[in-house]
Amino acid sequence: MVYPQQKGVFKLSERLTVGISKKEFTSSNSELDRKIGPIKIPSIVLIEGPNDSGKSVLSQQYVYGALQSGLRVYYVTTESGYRQLLKNMEDVSFDVKYYFLTGDLKIAELHVKELEWKRDLAKKFLDLIINLIKNNPTFDIFVIDSLTYIATYASEEDILSFFTDVRNLVEEENKTLIITVHTHAFTQEMMLRIRSICDVHFLLSIKEIGDRMVRILQAPKIKGAIKSTSVILSFEVDTAFGIKVLPFSQARA
């Protein structure tokens, strides 16, 4: 990435973005975008899957694309600190340090793994996320990676209330919210209801093919998609490309 010289630094409010539509954004990955198309704004994007299925990497791919499109991103992580997150993204060629330094990318850490979880605490965290979106109107994309710990201990009533509230909030404020979650965090009935609220649903899984592990991405629901059929593709995480979509023949080999 080329950084602007100090002499040419300008205020964020003065930045010019040519040809940028605030109605949608892409992942900046040509193969992924060809298969899936752009993500609409506003929308709620649910990225669901088991451990190591690529949920964080997929969300980071879209963060990278949004930043390159001139959008501002607020990333809430429960998985690592901000330094580790920046390093993890750089390791797969998503160099976002410049956006972090200019303030176009903001990272908040939620340290949830060592807390003594109860329903009331989970409810407070859900309220915190809603207030975070309300109190940061200059950001376009919000990422919660991941909602698993909070969702595991929250009541079904609180979870449904949260998704209903953010559904209304993203519409009113014209934002996109990306949420990653482990499938086991919800009951099957609850997961069906949550999927119905979301605009985009990515379902990730892992498949062993020969002597290697391949990740499978299904997109059964994409708001405003040109193609009405469900998208299914296989991919690997590549240090040079980020998400590398595999040809069908290679995925079956």
CATH superfamily: P-loop containing nucleotide triphosphate hydrolases
DSSP summary: helix tally: 9
- At the first level of CATH, the class is Alpha Beta
> What spatial order of strands do you see in the largest sheet?
5-4-6-7-3-8-9-10-11
Mean pLDDT: 88
Work out the helicity level. Answer: 25-40%
| DSSP strand tally | 11
Structurally, how many domains make up the residues? Answer: 1
**H-E order:** EHEEHEHHEHEHHEHEEEEH
Using the coordinates shown, work out and report the CATH topology.
Rossmann fold
Give the strand content.
25-35%
Described by the principal axes of the CA atoms, the overall outline is: globular
Summarize the structure in words:
This protein has nine helices and eleven strands. The strands form two sheets. Strands 5-4-6-7-3-8-9-10-11 form a nine-stranded mixed beta sheet. It has a single domain (18-204), classed as Rossmann fold, CATH 3.40.50.300. It is 36% helix and 25% strand. α5 (119-134) packs parallel to α7 (156-173) and α7 runs parallel beside α8 (188-197). It is α/β, with parallel strands linked by helices and 253 residues long. Residues 1-21 have low confidence and may be disordered. β10 and β11 (242-245) form a beta hairpin.
